[in-house]
Amino acid sequence: MAASAKFFQQLLRHPRRTLRLCYSQWRHDYTPEPRLPDTLHTVVLFVPKRIGDGMAVFPVIRALQARRVSRLVIVASTYNEIVFQELADERVEVVTLADDKDLRAMRGVARDLRARHGRVDLCVEGTIRDDVPTRCFVGTLRARCNLKLGASPMRCYASLFGEAQAMQDRGEARPHCWAALMREAGIAEVPGTYEFPIAADDEARVRRCVEPLGAYVALNLDGSHPARQLSLAQGRRLCELLRDILGRPVVMVFGPGGEDKARRLAADMPDVHRLPLAVSLPHSVAIVKHAALVVTPDTAVLHMASAWNRPTLGLYARPQRRWRPLAEHSAMIETGGHLGDLDMQQVARVLAALPVVAVRG
C-alpha cells in the first residue's frame, strides 16, 4: 500500500519521468541467476559519469582484481575515462561512451560487449542513478548478476540490502559504500578510498617543477558549478591568508576554465606559482599528491587530496556529507548556497588549526 501511494505521488509530481521509468522497467528488466556466480570470468563496471564518480569506484576495481577476475571492462564517459587510463597495464579494458543519455549508443555498447565476450558474469552499475539510460544498458547487457548501490524496483539487481544500503541511505562517503558492497557481496575486502593513477612521467615533470619550492599549498578556485567557484578577488585574498598564516608558497591547480585566474594571480603575487606545464588532469593530480596542504571547492581536486591523504580544506556551497574530504587531517567550510558568500575570517581560523604536512621521499 505504501509503495502504491509513493508511486502515485511520483506520478502526480513527475508524470512523464515516472511513466518513462515504468516503461523502461517493463522493457529492460529480466530475471538473473539467483546468486553471485562463484567464478567471475568477465565483469563490466558501468560508470559513464564525472571524474569524482570514476575515482570513487576504485574499491570495486580493486576488489575485482583481488578476486582475480579474468576480464574487467569499464564503461566510462569522455569526462572520466582519463581516471582509468593507467589501468591498461593492469589488464583492464576501457570503453568510452560519448553521450550517457544516448539510448542507441547504450544498446550498441552492451551488444558489442556481449558479442565480443559472451555472457557477462557480473555488471556493477556505478552511476548510483535509477534512470532510463542505465536501465537500457543493464537490460541489454543481461549479465548473469547485477549489483548497484541504492534500492531499485528492478528484479535484475541482486537483493543486497544490508550495510552498504544503509550507508548509502545515510549519505556516507561514496568509496566507503562501494567497499561495503564488495564486502557484503563476498567479492573481496578492500579499503574504501579514492584513486586516480597517473603515469610516472607526469609525476616526474611536476616534481622537478615544485622541488625548489619546498612544502607548498595547492590551491584550486573552481568547481563544476558557478555556485562552487571563487572569484579572482577571493583567490587573491586566499593567497594572502596562506602567506600570512602558513608562510608557504602557493601552487595553482586549475582546468582550462581557470587558467586566466591562475595566470593573473601568479603574475601579481610573488609567492603564487603557475607551473610551466601543459594543463592536464594528471599534472593536477601530481601537484595535489605532493602538496603539504590542499585548499579547494567541492570538486575532483578534493577527491585527489583524499586519494593521497593530503591535509585538506574543502570549501562547500551547501552542506555535504557524501563527497566530504577523507584525508586524515581535513576541514570543511560551508556557505549558504554560493561560495561568493565565503567568510574569509572563518577561513583564516580554520587554516590556523590545520596541519601542513610535507611529503617525504
Structure description:
With 361 residues, this protein is an alpha/beta fold. The protein has helices at 2-13, 15-28, 51-56, 58-66, 103-117, 132-141, 163-170, 174-184, 200-210, 232-246, 259-268, 281-289, 300-307, 344-353, and strands at 42-46, 71-77, 92-97, 122-125, 146-148, 217-220, 250-253, 272-273, 293-297, 312-316, 330-334. Strands 8-7-6-9-10-11 form a six-stranded parallel beta sheet, sandwiched between helices. A five-stranded parallel beta sheet has the order 3-2-1-4-5, sandwiched between helices. α5 packs parallel to α6 (132-141) and α9 packs across α12.
Q: How is this structure best summarized?
A:
By secondary structure, this protein is of the alpha/beta class. The chain is 41% helix and 14% strand.
